[in-house]
Structure formats: C-alpha cells, structure tokens
Design brief:
By secondary structure, the protein is mostly beta strands. It contains one helix and ten strands, in the order H-E-E-E-E-E-E-E-E-E-E. The longest helix is centred in the N-terminal third of the chain and has 18 residues. The protein is globular and about 45 Å long. The termini are far apart. The model has no long low-confidence stretch (mean pLDDT 87).
Length: 165
C-alpha cells in the first residue's frame, strides 16, 4: 500500500517536471539496440515549427558506463525540404580528465544535451530531416569503431530561445 502511494507520488512529480519545460518545441529519442553500428543512421523527420522564429537545436544522448571514450564524434546532416543538405562533423567531450562520464543522471545512465546549432529559422515549407551517425575512431587506427558500445538512445531537440530580461 505504501509502495503504491510512493509510486503514484513519483509519477505525478515526474509528469509535473516534464510538463514544466516551456522551451521544448520538439524532443524525440530513438533507442540504439545493443551497440551503435558505424553505418547506422538515426533519422528524425521534423515538421518545422513557426517559420518566423529562431530556435536552438541540440543532439541528445543517453549513455552508460560501457561508453569507454572521453569524446564523441558525430556526423549530423540536416536535409532541407527543397533538397539542400548541410553536413557537420561535431566533437563532444563525454568525460572529464579523470575519466568520469559527464551528463546528468543519478544512475549509471547519463543524459547529455549537446549543442548543434543556434538561432536557426526554419524558413522553407515542408519537412526537414536530421540524420545522425557516429564517426568514432580509436587513437592510431585508420578504420572507424564498427560497434560503439554504451550509447543507449540518440535524440534531437528544438528549443525556443530564452528571452533575456
């Protein structure tokens, strides 16, 4: 009985926390099964929000202690509705100098909110596609890491820009 009340309280508190995120416009995660293969592309189809406003864009990641690197290289591609494609190779720090994983979370799963682009206006009509894949390599090796362990989910987030007052 007490356990049910505690679970109900936790559920209500979680819903309140999630609903208080007024900056969120789009926030979707996709699971990575077992390990993230170097040829596996995580794809997000986005119906653009208001075409007159600017937004900040983020790549979100959830990782476990099985992630053994201090950094992460990603190839992020944005495909515009009329065919233009912008591709970026991005590097993010994932651990401090002592090897402790960065990110938020109380368990062994850490959540990282990584800057992608800021002040972006979706001024073309139609759907946008964002493709994300990893581009990790081990030091001194030419070939990439084929199976990247420790990444459990890849997400993409669009936020309203906070007004400074």
């Amino acid at each position: 009985m007490l356990l049910n009340k505690v679970l109900l309280l936790f559920l209500v508190f979680s819903c309140v926390l999630v609903s208080c995120d007024s900056n969120r416009v789009y926030d979707v995660y996709k699971p990575v099964p077992n390990a993230w293969h170097k040829d596996s592309v995580v794809r997000f189809e986005i119906t653009p929000p208001d075409s007159t406003r600017a937004y900040n864009l983020f790549v979100n990641l959830r990782n476990t202690n099985q992630y053994k690197f201090n950094n992460l290289f990603l190839i992020v591609e944005m495909v515009f509705p009329h065919g233009k494609t912008v591709t970026d190779t991005l590097e993010y720090r994932m651990a401090d100098p002592k090897g402790k994983l960065l990110g938020t979370g109380l368990s062994d799963v850490k959540e990282n909110k990584l800057w992608y682009k800021e002040h972006i206006v979706f001024n073309e009509k139609g759907n946008y596609t964002v493709n994300i894949q990893h581009a990790m390599r081990e030091n001194g090796k030419v070939n990439g890491v084929i199976e990247l362990d420790g990444i459990t989910d890849v997400g993409f987030r669009i936020e309203n820009i906070k007004n400074k007052q």
